[in-house]
Amino acid sequence: MNIWAIADLHLSFAQPKPMSIFGAHWQDHYRRIAQHWWLKVHPQDVVLIAGDISWAMKPVEAEPDLNWIGNLPGRKIMIKGNHDFWWGSARKVRQQLPADMFILDGEAMEIENTIVCGTRGWLAPNDPTFDPEIDQKPFERQLRRLERALDQAQVLQTQNQPIYVMLHYPPLTTHGEHTPFLELILSTPVHTVLYGHLHDTESQQQARKGWVGGVRYQLIAADYLQFDPQLLSPSGEMHL
Fold first, then answer.
1. C-alpha R_g of the chain
2. Contact 102, 95 (CB under 8 A)
């Protein structure tokens, strides 16, 4: 079994949204994702999808996108992104998912010898774009969910299995400062942190990547990966 990772699929089969408005590199991006996916992912593999799955506004509108993902090989584990407006309660989302698709909403699960936990994340109060009136409540809620996910991960970690944390938002501010999300992560024996959300060239270049303080960080936004799901080795390293 191999574990792969990607974020920001931004699908819109029910009501097509031309992603090329965000740059020519997004033209027919879903075709490129599928092409790479079919070439390398096997049915026994797992693909971690770190949010922004569908542009749909309602669950019924997301069904073609979820079915498209479901028809691709491998088991999929997903978290919510900031554009997943179709995503209601975890219970309702789970009822809607095709076979071999799972979500993490402040939870952890074990995949053979690897533990994966995740939640969406949010802007932190020390980020310059943080607006307390808009962001304080979701920040607090997401921080609690990350804490719960990490607690569950540690309960599952009975044999020193590597823990992967999957977020949509990066756990650092736009200036690269630590956030409360990252402080929680660093208080736990986490091996790898995966995140998406960043799409402009400057943010992608400045994003934390590689090994820092014994933790591996990897940006897995689809456009950064050239729409190619990336392999996580058993040691947690990202093969680029």
1. 17
2. no
Structural domains of the chain sorted by starting position, each given as residue range(s) with its CATH number in brackets? 3-239 (3.60.21.10)
173-213 residue pLDDT tens = 989 999 999 999 999 999 999 999 998 888 888 899 989 99
Q: Which amino acid is at 41?
A: V
- CB 192 within 8 Å of CB 166: no
Tens of pLDDT, residue by residue over 113-146, are 899 999 999 999 999 999 999 999 999 999 999 9
| pTM of the predicted protein model | 0.94
Can you read off the two tokens belonging to residue 80?
């919510």
- To 5 degrees, how large is the angle CA 62–CA 218–CA 109? 60
| DSSP assignment letter at 172 | B
The Cα–Cα gap between 125 and 92 comes to: 31
